[in-house]
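Private note to self, pasted from the team thread so I don't lose it. Backbone tokens:
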């Protein structure tokens, strides 16, 4: 009884749930799963709550659903929002100023609610205008200023033309009066250039004024000034002009226009080009103009940032116009994108066109107006629509000046923000005052908006321990809230008392608890494993298994709920495929299907009639070329008994009856008036057609005039006489033509004049026949010329048609097979558009092509929808027709219309009618040209324009596989519907010959995909044998996106096929991914092409002569095979259990099929499905389930047909031996440990067999359930061993259980585990099962690694963090929250939240923080399960040491503005979009060329989003370390930032195997085991911090060169060691010289003091580096590298290297986290230090090697240009001092140089130390190709971290009679040692004429 009651209640619940879901899955009220009444009302608009105690439906639901479920209307609790307009003054057009209406509104919104408001705006014809010109006054703008002074009258005319009420002002700017922007020498401060003013930052020269004369007079007094560096300080000037409103003179009701004129780029906050970056405090955004209008704080605060300018200009309604020269145009175009409205104009070099630029910009601003919602709270979204309801894009509004414009404002309160209800947000994020206005207006609609979060009064009066809740809970708003330990709706089920009775979880039609899809909990509750897929009280329903329509689940118009489609409103049907509305069946009169059919499933089913019907059963006259054409035959047969339907049987089928009348109605009063000629008597009859007067009458009213119009018969007797005379004349002319040349010419002229000869004009095909070989055809069409003779005046249109296979007889088998007229086929259609062809149309992805394609598709679909069964057109493309007369420049449109085959004539007629009219709907076409085709016939028309004598007919050839060897097409010119020409040569035959080949070669498919890790692409080439014998074909590969010797090894050659051979394989070697490519985020798809060519011995190429091979960098496919090659069973075994194992890529889903072979009693097969994480499955065969006795036999099992991501291993088959039942030998028992029955219960000695059929399943992120079957015998218990995959089994944990199941708990999430089970009895432990593997489920991630701060200024910081130590899955996003707090850690301001969707970008740049304010920063990670815990840190930037010369703008690092409102969310930008100044560092000089791309340093090599300059910091800690680009965990203590490296996942493919070892003894190689839980983290070349080069000496010193055998590689010429971490090293080398191809390399290494030799084989000759990650810190290693060719191995290059780092005193082999590390070799010189002496000379210094190999005799220094050019220079330097110096003269500016230093000892030469340096120009003068580069120089790969050198060398031309050249050099030499950091700034000014030198030294000491 209880079980029946349970099932009844479940059925009622199911019915209730179906009703609940019957209103679509968009019911957010129900989906919110609200626990309380208040949560329900806050879920969104329309949500209601039912507090009735007896209510059994969902309490939180839509209002109408609550009532439908039985809740009383009076009890339902709802909430309502409100809206009021507080001020709405009508617009007064007579007031010439910008106005909006309404002006003030108040709105409240429920979550998710939208409200629409109509807004009116008025832009005056010539409204008030404030024009402020802000001009660059650097010396290079002198001619620009002179031109502006001359334009006084023109400027006055311009502003009067723009506005009747204007003011104009003028400001000037240069740059900060501080080094290095300004030359601070006293004489230069007084007059930087001849006849110039002292330098300044910004000055407001002329306040906005209406007095143009005063303006021009003041402007004439101005003189130019000057500065040093190229970028200017214009941002300071813009900010002051924006915030100093009163001093500038901005008026409130005017349009504010700021014209910014310059020829240079700009400085911005902490831009890195300024050496003061991070030293000056942040700009305070206040007005600082003195009484003379000068900016006073230029040297005390930094430039403003770009987001700051955007915000302040918008706040003050100022529209910037950037008038710039071509030199900096691109920078300002990029800058324009950040402003909601701005213009950029291109100035001439002398600004002579500045007035035109201003006028064009002003007109553009007025014509492209946008609407903005300023100060919008985060909880709201705003959209602006045109009056038609279309959402407007930026710049869409075009409000006419002088007229009232209208738009609609749509405001919406969001329901959820970041998956959190909007009511949970802070108050200032869900309410505020928005200002809605056009971008050029000052006036705005002020909208006070707030989100309404209602609460329920019933929650305040709860009934404690209510009887309805059985005393076990409180009754709140009609719902029981149970106490702890009580469950169910009425709190009547005790969690502690109820046993785990799984029977309560078994459904009516199921045998497993929860249908095997969930866990059975207390009180019979099922919790489904995947609630998004499985549902129901027993998890019995799969939400992906409902019916589909058109491939979409529930037609995408409903949801799959409880096993059936629950349709959205307005849809019905089993798959929601039918609309409930009959709107799609309404005819033009508003009736349903015109009364001639039924509306079924949204479509009219029409009654059959003689007329073509539309989709609404109305006569489709247009498809039949109009009403007249559609009714002609029926009128003719009924009225006159003539025509096509004169038979009574056919005539009776007509859908209407005619009425004979004496007089017809006027044409205006009827639908159509028609006239046709009756062919039987040559008379014309007339009739009218009109719609029925009675709407219910569906027949047309047709009235026919009784009297026909017939021609007079009185002159008929003359016809024979005239015919005789004409024949006689023709005979005479023919004789003259034949026998008299003179007469022939005369006759030709006469014929041309005779009207009866149509002026002698003839059209026809040029040739009679064309013969083509199919193998030589280049397309499926043939351009067949048609010619015209005679006078070429006038236009002729010729219709033509083509018929395929005319050579076939009527009895041909293909002819006898009639096609299905209802078959949907493709109809190619071509039209000539009334539009000239452009190059953009030839590119399908161009904007022009997309727009035209959309226009074509929309209009043609509208026309062709009249064709019954027609589908939408597709594959639209554009081209030209070469020989098309005067139309060859016009666009030919090709498209495909799919329609029934029988509709071809209708398509032709409809196409011709629209072509004749010159348009398809709104698409204009040129008359006279079209083509319509099927797969066997085509028709079309071509046009001869006046003067044209030849055009081409584009004839389709219908080439098909089933064509005969020789087929013919017939092309016929049918008639000339327009023109007077006659058809001459009417027919042309086209013959297509298919060559008979002995063989056909082809690739099997047009594209292949191979995994790079396979190492080989085996490409099959098939041969179809027609006549057997020997034959050949050539093949060749060529590059596409994949490159030869980088991604693959190119192949070419010939394949010879012998008799009977049908397929050969071409192997193409795939190369390992290059290290740099492997580090790129978005790698390009790598593809190469294989071509077949030159078939011989009568062969030809087939369907696929070319194939594209894609190299996929994907995991290798799973390999599935039998566990053993032989399986042994006995006849007494109840089942045969055969295990199948999977190796490689176990995390994916893979399937394989199996089948038995050669079995006596059964033939079985089936699939095996490996779920993610499963590595073993069993095939179980029950021999007793099949007829016959179980007898000894031997059969096979075979695996076949693996899934696409799987393959079959070496044990594809297994042999099953069944022997007579009896005791097994110990050996056999040992072989069969798992899954086999045994004839005895125990093994010898009484031990138990292994438990059969072990199976594991993850039930949570930290638990696994393991089940097995009891073995024979009486086990006393079981022992379960489990351990982490990859750990040794001896470390396993063991638990003892008494039942055949165990639950493993306290496991690691998302981790692979291995398990075994054994049974035991009194004798002891039995055999273990085979290993069972299982992976735990994902869990939320742990907290991220410690936070690190790179303090750039007191208001700007770069925050970074490390990946969580326990990711517990795949990280998908990070969230950063930073909040201002006080000393008591209490929040004192709004928290800002930033979500970073790219998990690789673990860094954020935060601007505009409040100076000296303490902030709390919190970071958390997210995976597929959800958000993990926060990692937090508290820091006050003002108390932190600033990083001098740091680069705050890091590529790909998000930038946020801490002060910006939410309307500036769009300016959360990535810094690679921030324009750089021309003088900013583009090519940091860093030793080595491995990571230089096109002369630019790859910053991702240094750090993912890292800087090219390393920043050093110090602390009071003895372990002072580097806050560098080294990626890893970071933690902060006090003011010191430490970094501990985690790196990136190890690249196992970098490690070579044992291949190629030969017989080398003592060489050791080990496999790398990867573990998921604690993923082995290594280092990549992103982390390189140090390098040492060991170069080739023999090439420089011939005496050391040793000759090798021809073809044997030389010694690798250059060995580079790069430190990646304390235990990781990258070894690189240069390819040695070799007369033959290099096949690969070998790298050997061992500890210097002995030990095992390890070997890495590099099989890809294009790879010249390896990464080694298993070194020991502070241990010296000997490395050897050699190359191999076909002739053998070459000599080795050797090097000794050590990675020095601090280690844990308790564990000398464990590096200290965050400790610095550096490379050292005893014989390498110390780091190189450069000091510039002049623009063409520098000083180079270095320290002596610490342990030179012998006594130092001197050094060899080489210098060469980095990018080639010039000779290599060599210097011999003697001495053995601690520091050596060398002066290098005769260098060239702006050219990067590479320097190398080697020590020369008594034992030879040591390794090289490298460095790269550039002396660079900054301003003025004609520069070299490097003139725009600013080089930042680092010592080679940052050598030891104790020493880091950065040199910025810049140059400027000084226009001085005493100084013809000048240079400024700044060098920072930073040494970190203990507690001291020293910065040295040197400035050197070189006088090249006077020869003098002025030096200023500034030294700073920080502790």
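Design output:
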């Amino acid at each position: 009884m209880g079980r029946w009651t349970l099932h009844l209640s479940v059925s009622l619940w199911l019915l209730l749930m179906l009703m609940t879901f019957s209103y679509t899955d968009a019911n957010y009220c129900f989906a919110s799963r609200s626990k309380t009444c208040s949560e329900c009302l806050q879920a969104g608009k329309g949500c209601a709550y039912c507090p009735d105690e007896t209510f059994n439906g969902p309490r939180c639901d839509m209002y109408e659903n609550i009532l439908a479920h039985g809740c009383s209307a009076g009890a339902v609790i709802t909430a309502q929002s409100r809206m009021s307009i507080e001020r709405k003054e009508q617009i007064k057009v007579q007031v010439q100023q910008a106005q909006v209406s309404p002006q003030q509104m108040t709105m409240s919104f429920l979550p998710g609610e939208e409200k629409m408001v109509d807004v009116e705006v008025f832009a005056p014809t010539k409204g008030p205008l404030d024009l402020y010109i802000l001009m660059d006054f650097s010396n290079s703008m002198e001619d620009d200023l002179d031109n502006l002074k001359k334009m006084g009258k023109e400027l006055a005319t311009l502003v009067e033309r723009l506005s009747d009420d204007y003011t104009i002002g003028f400001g000037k700017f240069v740059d900060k009066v501080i080094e290095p922007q300004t030359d601070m020498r006293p004489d230069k401060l007084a007059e930087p250039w001849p006849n110039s003013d002292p330098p300044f930052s910004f000055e407001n020269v002329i306040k906005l004024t209406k007095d143009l004369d005063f303006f021009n007079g003041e402007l004439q007094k101005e003189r130019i000034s000057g500065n040093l560096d190229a970028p200017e300080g214009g941002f300071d000037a813009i900010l002051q002009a924006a915030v100093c409103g009163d001093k500038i003179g901005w008026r409130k009701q005017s349009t504010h226009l700021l014209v910014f004129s310059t020829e240079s780029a700009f400085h911005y906050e902490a831009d890195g080009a300024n050496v003061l970056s991070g030293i000056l405090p942040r700009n305070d955004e206040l007005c600082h103009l003195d009484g003379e209008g000068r900016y006073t704080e230029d040297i005390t605060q930094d430039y403003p940032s770009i987001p700051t300018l955007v915000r302040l200009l918008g706040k003050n309604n100022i529209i910037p116009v950037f008038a710039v020269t071509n030199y900096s145009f691109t920078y300002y175009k990029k800058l324009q994108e950040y402003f909601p409205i701005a213009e950029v104009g291109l100035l001439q070099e002398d600004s002579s066109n500045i007035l035109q630029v201003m006028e064009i910009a002003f007109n553009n601003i007025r014509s492209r107006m946008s609407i903005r919602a300023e100060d919008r709270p985060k909880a709201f979204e705003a959209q602006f629509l045109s009056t038609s309801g279309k959402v407007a894009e930026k710049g869409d509004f075009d409000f006419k000046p002088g007229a009232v414009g209208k738009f609609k404002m749509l405001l919406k309160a969001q329901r959820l923000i970041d998956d959190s209800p909007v009511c949970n947000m802070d108050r200032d994020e869900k309410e505020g005052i928005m200002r809605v206005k056009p971008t050029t207006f000052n006036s705005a609609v002020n909208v006070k908006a707030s989100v309404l979060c209602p609460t329920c009064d019933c929650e305040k009066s709860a009934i404690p321990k209510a009887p309805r809740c059985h005393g076990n809970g409180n009754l709140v708003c009609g719902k029981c809230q149970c106490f702890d330990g009580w469950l169910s709706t009425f709190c009547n089920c005790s969690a502690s008392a109820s046993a785990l009775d799984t029977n309560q979880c078994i459904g009516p039609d199921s045998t497993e608890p929860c249908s095997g899809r969930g866990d059975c909990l207390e009180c019979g509750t099922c919790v489904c494993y995947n609630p998004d897929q499985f549902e129901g009280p027993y998890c019995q329903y799969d939400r992906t298994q409902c019916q589909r329509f058109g491939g979409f689940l529930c037609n995408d118009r409903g949801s799959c709920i409880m096993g059936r489609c629950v349709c959205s409103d307005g849809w019905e049907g089993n798959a929601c495929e039918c609309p409930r509305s009959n709107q799609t069946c309404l005819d033009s009169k508003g009736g349903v299907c015109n009364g001639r059919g039924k509306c079924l499933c949204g479509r009219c089913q029409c009654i059959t009639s003689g007329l073509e019907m539309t989709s609404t059963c109305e006569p489709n006259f247009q498809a039949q070329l109009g009403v007249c054409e559609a009714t002609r035959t029926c009128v003719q047969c009924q009225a006159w008994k003539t025509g096509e339907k004169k038979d009574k049987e056919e005539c009776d089928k007509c859908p209407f009856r005619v009425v004979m009348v004496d007089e017809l109605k006027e044409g205006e009063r009827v639908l159509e008036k028609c006239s046709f000629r009756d062919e039987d008597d040559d008379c014309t009859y007339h009739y009218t057609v009109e719609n029925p007067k009675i709407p219910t009458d569906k027949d047309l009213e047709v009235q026919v005039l009784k009297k026909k119009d017939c021609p007079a018969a009185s002159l008929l007797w003359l016809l024979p006489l005239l015919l005789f005379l004409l024949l006689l004349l023709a005979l005479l002319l023919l004789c003259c033509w034949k026998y008299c040349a003179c007469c022939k010419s005369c006759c030709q002229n006469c014929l041309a004049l005779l009207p009866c000869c149509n002026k002698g004009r003839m059209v026809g095909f040029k040739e009679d026949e064309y013969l083509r070989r199919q193998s030589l055809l280049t397309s499926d069409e043939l351009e067949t010329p048609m010619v015209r003779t005679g006078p070429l005046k006038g236009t002729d249109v010729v219709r033509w048609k083509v018929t395929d296979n005319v050579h076939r007889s009527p009895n041909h088998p293909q002819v006898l097979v009639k096609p299905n007229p209802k078959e949907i086929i493709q109809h190619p259609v071509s039209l000539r558009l009334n539009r000239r062809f452009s190059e953009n149309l030839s590119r399908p992805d161009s904007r022009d092509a997309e727009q035209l394609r959309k226009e074509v598709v929309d209009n043609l679909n509208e026309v062709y929808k009249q064709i019954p069964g027609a589908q939408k057109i597709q594959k639209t493309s554009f081209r030209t027709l070469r020989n098309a007369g005067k139309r060859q420049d016009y666009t030919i449109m090709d498209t495909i219309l799919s329609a029934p085959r029988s509709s071809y004539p209708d398509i032709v007629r409809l196409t011709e009618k629209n072509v004749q009219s010159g348009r398809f709907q709104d698409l204009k076409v040129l008359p006279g040209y079209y083509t319509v085709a099927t797969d066997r016939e085509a028709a079309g028309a071509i046009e001869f324009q006046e003067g044209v004598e030849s055009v081409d007919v584009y004839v389709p050839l219908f080439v098909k596989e089933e064509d005969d060897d020789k087929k013919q097409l017939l092309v016929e010119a049918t008639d000339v519907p327009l023109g007077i020409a006659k058809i001459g040569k009417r027919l042309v035959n086209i013959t297509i010959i298919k060559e008979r080949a002995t063989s056909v070669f082809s690739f099997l498919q047009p594209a292949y995909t191979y995994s790079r890790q396979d190492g080989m692409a085996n490409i099959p080439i098939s041969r179809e044998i027609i006549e057997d014998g020997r034959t050949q074909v050539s093949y060749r590969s060529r590059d596409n996106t994949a490159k030869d010797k980088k991604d693959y090894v190119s192949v070419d050659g010939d394949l010879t096929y012998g008799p009977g051979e049908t397929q050969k394989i071409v192997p193409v070697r795939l190369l390992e991914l290059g290290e740099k490519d492997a580090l790129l985020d978005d790698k390009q798809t790598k593809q190469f092409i294989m071509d077949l060519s030159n078939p011989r011995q009568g062969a030809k190429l087939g369907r696929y002569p070319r194939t594209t091979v894609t190299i996929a960098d994907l995991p290798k496919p799973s390999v599935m095979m039998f566990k053993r090659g032989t399986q042994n069973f006995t006849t007494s075994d109840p089942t045969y259990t055969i295990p199948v194992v999977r190796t490689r890529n176990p995390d994916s889903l893979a399937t394989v099929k199996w089948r038995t072979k050669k079995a006596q009693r059964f033939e079985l097969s089936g699939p095996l499905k490996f779920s993610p994480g499963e590595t073993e499955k069993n095939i179980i065969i029950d021999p007793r389930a099949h007829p016959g006795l179980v007898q000894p036999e031997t059969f096979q099992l075979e695996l076949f047909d693996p899934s696409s991501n799987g393959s079959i291993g070496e044990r594809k088959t297994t042999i099953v031996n069944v022997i007579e039942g009896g005791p097994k030998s110990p050996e056999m028992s040992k072989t069969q440990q798992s899954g086999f029955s045994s004839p005895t219960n125990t093994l010898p000695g009484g031990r138990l067999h292994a438990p059969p059929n072990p199976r594991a399943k993850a039930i949570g992120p930290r638990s696994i359930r393991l089940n097995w079957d009891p073995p024979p015998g009486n086990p006393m218990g079981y022992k379960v061993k489990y351990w982490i995959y990859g750990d040794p089994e001896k470390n396993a944990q063991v638990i003892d259980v008494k039942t055949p199941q165990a639950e493993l708990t306290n496991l690691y999430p998302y981790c692979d585990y291995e398990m075994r089970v054994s049974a035991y009895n009194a004798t002891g432990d039995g055999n273990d099962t085979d290993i069972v593997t299982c992976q735990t489920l994902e869990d939320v991630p742990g907290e991220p690694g410690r936070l690190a701060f790179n303090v750039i200024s007191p208001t700007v910081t770069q925050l970074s963090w490390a990946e969580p130590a326990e990711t517990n899955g795949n990280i998908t996003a990070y969230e950063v929250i930073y909040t201002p707090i006080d000393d008591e850690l209490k929040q004192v301001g709004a928290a800002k939240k930033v979500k970073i969707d790219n998990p690789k970008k673990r860094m954020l740049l935060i601007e505009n923080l409040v100076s000296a304010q303490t902030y709390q920063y919190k970071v958390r990670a997210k995976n597929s399960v959800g958000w993990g815990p926060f990692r937090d840190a508290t820091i006050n930037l003002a108390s932190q040491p600033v990083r001098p010369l740091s680069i705050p703008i890091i590529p790909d690092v998000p930038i946020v503005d801490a002060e910006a409102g939410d309307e500036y969310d769009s300016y959360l930008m990535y810094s690679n979009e921030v324009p750089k100044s021309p003088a900013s560092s583009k090519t940091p000089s860093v030793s080595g060329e491995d990571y230089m791309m096109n002369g630019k340093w790859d910053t991702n090599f240094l750090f993912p989003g890292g800087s090219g300059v390393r920043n050093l910091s110090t602390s009071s800690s003895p372990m002072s370390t580097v806050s560098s680009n080294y990626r890893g965990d970071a933690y902060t203590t006090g003011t010191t930032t430490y970094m501990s490296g985690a790196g990136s996942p190890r690249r196992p493919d970098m490690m070579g195997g044992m291949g190629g070892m030969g017989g080398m003894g003592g060489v050791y190689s080990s496999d790398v085991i990867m573990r998921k839980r604690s993923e082995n983290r290594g280092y990549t070349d992103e982390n390189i911090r140090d390098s040492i080069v060991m170069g080739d000496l023999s090439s420089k010193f011939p005496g050391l060169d040793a000759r090798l055998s021809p073809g044997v590689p030389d010694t690798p010429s250059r060995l580079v060691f790069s430190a990646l971490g304390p235990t990781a090293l990258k070894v690189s080398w240069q390819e040695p010289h070799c007369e033959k191809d290099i096949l690969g390399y070998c790298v050997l290494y061992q500890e210097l003091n002995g030990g095992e030799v390890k070997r890495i084989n590099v099989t890809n000759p294009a790879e010249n580096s390896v990464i080694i990650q298993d070194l020991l810190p502070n241990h010296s290693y000997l490395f050897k590298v050699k190359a191999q060719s076909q002739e053998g191995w070459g000599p080795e290059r050797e090097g000794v290297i050590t990675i020095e780092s601090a280690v844990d005193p308790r564990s000398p082999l464990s590096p200290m986290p965050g400790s610095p590390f550096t490379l050292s070799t005893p014989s390498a010189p110390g780091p190189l230090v450069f000091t510039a002496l002049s623009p063409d000379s520098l000083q180079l210094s270095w320290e002596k090697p610490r342990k030179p190999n012998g006594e130092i005799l001197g050094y060899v220094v080489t210098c060469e240009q980095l990018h080639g050019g010039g000779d290599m220079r060599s210097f011999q330097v003697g001495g053995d001092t601690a520091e050596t110096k060398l002066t290098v003269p005769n260098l060239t500016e702006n050219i990067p140089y590479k320097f190398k230093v080697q020590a020369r000892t008594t034992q030879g030469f040591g390794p090289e130390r490298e460095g790269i340096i550039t002396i660079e120009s900054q301003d003025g003068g004609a520069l070299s190709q490097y003139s725009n580069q600013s080089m930042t120089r680092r010592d080679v790969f940052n050598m030891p971290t104790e020493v880091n050198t950065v040199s910025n060398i810049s140059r400027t031309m000084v226009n001085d009679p005493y100084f013809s050249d000048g240079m400024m050099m700044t060098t920072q030499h930073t040494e970190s040692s203990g507690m001291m950091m020293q910065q040295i700034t040197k400035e050197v000014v070189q006088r090249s004429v006077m020869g003098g030198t002025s030096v200023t030294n500034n030294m700073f000491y920080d502790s």
